[in-house]
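Continued from yesterday's entry.
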Amino acid sequence: MKGWKKWMAVGCSHGDQIDPEARKAVLMFKERWKPDTTIHLGDFLDLAAFRSGAISDPNSSDRAASISDDLSAGIDFLHELRPQHILYGNHEARLYKLASSPNALAAHAATLTIQAIEKTAKELKARLYPYHIRSYYELGGCKFIHGSMFNVQAIRDHAEALGGSSVVMAHLHRVGLERARNIEGTSGYCTGMLARFDMDYASTRRATLAWSQGFAYGYYKDNSININLCERRQNNPWLLPL
């Protein structure tokens, strides 16, 4: 393995919705693995109170979700994980929509939250990546993204859209591997989530039955990368690779 370095990537920790067992497992693995590069693939905050439904519906229960608790938990986890690369997910993207809102209170809260994230990234000396289909971090020829499509074949669809040797994403809350139907034979990987399985907003959605927690890790060198997935299904124990 001379000349090869280590990496790991996680996503969808969702602020104060992070699962304590998942948090412990990921941090334990990082301590043992000692990666040279660590990536958070986005949705490190949940921001339920910033949902469009919560903003428009005075009876939405999400209006009572604590922004302070969510922000503190999300930032605490980033400080523990110490990623060099932090991608915004669709949950963080809500902040930029609301920062220019005519609702002065919502705009002010969104702006303060953005400033707290940027301050954290600066303290960690980490690079922030906007939530955009053309925004990704590339390592060893692999594109790391949060993800924007959400369907049964979303891993494959992202791999086909971005191309290259491989794509690693989060967003879908399930660990998975699919091959693209392109000339490059791009491999698409999804890291799953670190959030709780019983998050309220998805309690009646059938898709949650496929949810799984996990992370990705491996080696990289120049334009080559090795990708492995670690998965934990609901009601099963964490079995770490090391």
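--- second protein ---
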Amino acid sequence: IGRGTARFKADVRTVTVKGLVEKEVQADEAVWTLSLRRASDDLKDAHAKISADREAVLAFLQKQGFKDAEIVRQPTRTIDKLAREYRQQQGTDRFRYVVTTSIVVRTPNIAQVQKSLGATEELLKAGVVLDGEGGAANPRYGVSKLNELRPQLLAAGTKKARAIAPQFP
């Protein structure tokens, strides 16, 4: 029993070594969401304004050289503040209706997105206000070929782990 306990304790003395590998990779896809918001006391007025804003953004994106297949129109959402259960006290809200929508650009042309970001001032001059709540106006960049990089990264991580492992007695 004593030898079994000693052997059991010896088996527990193991160390797991992991190798960390980082590699900078150029993004090959950008997703840019342009959110729009309008408010009014008249629902038709709010929808007319948001429709005009959407058309201005679509014209801007086409002028910047984005293809129709890269541009996706999101549905329009309407909030009636008087219809809410937990609304603020009467008279504190300036407008009754808030109408929001967004346009999403998904493209592999990263340079085109970055160039267009700087040109969004044109929209502001035209009276279109981009709703950037939570940083949504900033594009997200991604790598779609991560599975092709995975074997290289795993091999490099394993190599580093094996190099570090002999340092443990």
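The chain has five helices and five strands. The chain has a mean pLDDT of 83. Will compare against the first tomorrow.
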